[in-house]
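Before relying on records like the one below, remember that each one covers exactly one chain. Contacts with other chains, cofactors or solvent are not represented anywhere in the record.
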Amino acid sequence: MNGFFRDLQQLIDEGHPFVLCTVIASHGSTPQKPGSKLVVKADGSLVGTVGGGAIEKQIVDAALALLQSSTTTSTLDTHLTHELGMCCGGRMTVFLEKHAAAPSLVLFGAGHVAKELSALAVAAGFDVTVADERTEWATDTRFPGARVLVRPADDVAREHAGGPDTYFAIATHDHPLDQRCVEALLDKPWSYLGVIGSRRKAERFRQRLLAAGFSKDRVEALECPMGLDIGALTPVEIGLSIAARLVAVRRAERVKAKARHLASV
C-alpha cells in the first residue's frame, strides 16, 4: 500500500471526517490527469494533490464547504483559463466525496436493552460509548466494539460537552438517575436525546424539567418513550426500535433533500 492510501486508511480507521477529491475527466492541457486524488481534511490540511495553484484552491474550498453541508457528493467542472486565469488552457472535472466522522452514541446504563442497542448501533456505524458504574454490567465482553466507562452515568452526563452529531440514550437501572442524566444533558447540543420508559414516566419527567426552569422547546425535544412504536416487548425488540429511530434521525436531512429534489422534478 503506497503512502497516500495508507494515510487514507488511517483517517478512516480513526474516524476523522474528510473529502476525497478525484479527477474524473480532463481535456486539453491540465496539471493532473484522471485518477489523480486529493484528500482534504476538516482542518484544511491536504494529502495528495490535483495540481496545485488556483485549481487546487478552488477544489479545497469546495471540499471544505461540502464538509459543512448535508450532502455527501458534488462535482466540480472548471475551465482553467476562462474561469481561473491559469495558462494551462484545459478543463478538469473533479468528483468530491465526503467521508463524515462516525456519529457518537452515548448510552447511559449497561442493562439488557443497552446491550442489544449497542450491538445494533455499532453495526450501523455509530461510535458507541457505554457509561455505568456497575462493574458486573459494564464490561468489554458485554459491549464488543463499544467504549465502556465504569463510572456513574450522571457524572459522565455532566462532563460530556455534547455536539451536533451526538446522540444520547438514557436507560439506567434507576429513575432518579435517569432524571439527573436528562437534566445534565438537556441544554447541551445534541442530535438526539431519549429516555427509556412509559408515557406516564415521560409526563412526570417533563413536569419536573419545566418546574426546574428548562425551556418548553428543549423539554419537548426530549424523546420519551424512546424509539419507534413497533410494539416491542423484549430487550432485542426494544433495542431495535431505538436503533431504528437513531438511524431515522441521522438520515433525516438526506431524506428531506431527496424529497425536495423529487418535488422540484
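Residues 22 and 37 are 5 Å apart (CA to CA).
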